[in-house]
Amino acid sequence: MDSSKRLLVIDDDPDIGLMMKMMLVYKGFMVTLLDNAGEVEPTLLKKNIDLIFMDMLLSGVNGLDVCAKLKSNDSYAHIPIIMMSAHPDAHKLCLAAGANDFISKPFDTADLLSKVISLLSKSSKTGQEA
User: Fold this and answer.
1) What are the E-state strand segments in the chain?
2) Quick one: pLDDT band at residue 88, thresholds 50, 70, 90?
3) What is the pTM (predicted TM-score) of this model?
4) Looking at domain 6-125, what is its CATH homologous superfamily?
């Protein structure tokens, strides 16, 4: 696994965010954890993020709106986004907002890692890495 890959996890549930960060760091990734969407763009400007995990429902902010905003910005549109939610209709909504993939909560760790590896591989092959 390429330990130089930087992932951004955005989840307002501290337990889920910390668990994801610990799991991904254990697998060799560098992980930045945010508990709100307010710091997403400043974080993307400061760090060379290769993939974003984002909860669909964040405190006070709709993750779908954040995803659509990032995907409509040429500076960030190339960064793969995996949206997460326990909501039954979330999969279609997240993909419609521009997410590259979706994982339902509670998620399977092996499935989550498979999606990460697949998206990072695709973005590397298309020359999107910095």
Assistant:
1) 6-10, 30-34, 51-55, 57-58, 61-62, 81-85, 101-104
2) confident
3) 0.90
4) Response regulator (3.40.50.2300)
